[in-house]
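Suppose a colleague, Dr. K., hands you the sequence of a protein chain of 239 amino acids and asks what its three-dimensional shape might be. Before reaching for any lab equipment, you can write down a predicted structure in token form. Begin with the sequence itself:
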Amino acid sequence: MGNTASTAPKGKKEQVRNMFNNIAGNYDFLNHFLSVGIDHLWRRRLVKMLSKTNPSRILDIATGTADLAVALVKANPKEIIGADISENMLNVGKAKIKRKKLDHIIQLELGDSENLKYENAYFDAITVAFGVRNYEDLDKGLSEMYRVTNQNGGVWILEFSKPTVFPVKQFYNFYFRFILPTIGRMVSKDKEAYTYLPDSVSKFPDGNAFLERMKKAGYKENKQIKLTFGIASIYYGKK
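The predicted structure, expressed as tokens, is then:
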């Protein structure tokens, strides 16, 4: 995972930043190729759910190359802010937004999920797609999200989960352990990035364990919506 200094190991946050800076140029291609395009359907499902709340301001944390931020335009908000710690990922996202002529509604900026610079209760909706498992301090990240969510606003989190049904579980584990890292390494030239992915998913407290962490942060009416045999999930919580 990421490069480490010779004197002392870097924290998870710095390692994640380095890793995503390294693979930014190939990230979109690999993301859609390795998920066989299903990630588009998952984002669309999240946007459909979120749209029902008619949010005016949306914060997309760990926005990366802004795939979810772009999809969120369909929810007709007045403002979308995408925040990420990787400069290179944001640069790819900014080019994409400019190309799609969406820079009047989407703004991308450097931001730390555990130290958000926004005012209390500023956003109607917070979204994170495949990012919470990269938080260095998950509870701090969730409490920061809660702080900037306005009263009656909500959080929508899209994340990989662990399928339990045979044979999906067995195929998923094989794919994540062997196929995905091999292809990812060949295309991105980063030896660790696509080994980090299955490791981070296996360590992430999914399902009820994550719903408990959301509850601890203050969110209520928390629920998990499983997608594609439990390969991914949307987690929702209301302030």
